[in-house]
Amino acid sequence: METWPEEVVRAFNRSKFNRDETKKYELVLYKPIEPILQEGPQCGIVALAMAMNNHSCNVKVQSIFEKAKELLYTIQGELFDGKEVLESYANYSYRFTCLARVIPHLCEQFNLTATVHQWAKVTDLVDCLQSGCICLVPYDSDANHEPCLKKGHRAHWLLVHGYLKELTSSPSNEYDLVLVQHGKSKFLGAFSMLDLFQSNGQLVDIDPKRRIDSEYCLPKDASLKETLCNLFVAI
């Protein structure tokens, strides 16, 4: 830890993993990210802005928001599937959750390439990180922002831009950590990669409370299985 950046040390010390003295970690990779706090339901746009700025695009959240509105991907700040947004926009309503496949379309508008990946194995994310990418990941966010299992009812976006390898256990990645930033905290987080993988893989439907809210235009079947579940975006 002596050679780790200060913010990585603080993130690790704040995490629950700091209490287990039997575990030793190596900082495999880390790309510093300037945090941006979200205003309203803009978790995907804020995560995307942080990723773009890491690639020296120097894009403001408002610029991405305006471009997304121009393309009819959003009204309030969420990101949507193109076809359903056109239908939603015509009805002056909007949809609850942001969809991974819209992010590459937005990136193209700023001359940046993004690719949607299936997250079938825990190591799929590591492979992308080690190739030089940073990754936007949808997951269920608990009250402390760590991954939880709420079937998509607490869906949120974060940006993974670092990786801590646990050295003393089996090579199963069970105790490995990812370093993350998201729009609800200015602090770097250290989350269990396995917990994040499991949270991402159970994003199946929208909070029932959202389904009866007239302010939201929801997917016809209220399913996230084809839009967020087992997906992440590499930039």
From TrEMBL:
<keyword id="KW-0378">Hydrolase</keyword>
<dbReference type="GO" id="GO:0006508">
    <property type="term" value="P:proteolysis"/>
</dbReference>
<protein>
    <recommendedName>
        <fullName>Actin maturation protease</fullName>
    </recommendedName>
</protein>
<keyword id="KW-0031">Aminopeptidase</keyword>
<dbReference type="Pfam" id="PF21646">
    <property type="entry name" value="ACTMAP-like_C"/>
</dbReference>
<dbReference type="InterPro" id="IPR040043">
    <property type="entry name" value="ACTMAP"/>
</dbReference>
<comment type="similarity">
    <text>Belongs to the ACTMAP family.</text>
</comment>
<keyword id="KW-0645">Protease</keyword>
<dbReference type="GO" id="GO:0004177">
    <property type="term" value="F:aminopeptidase activity"/>
</dbReference>
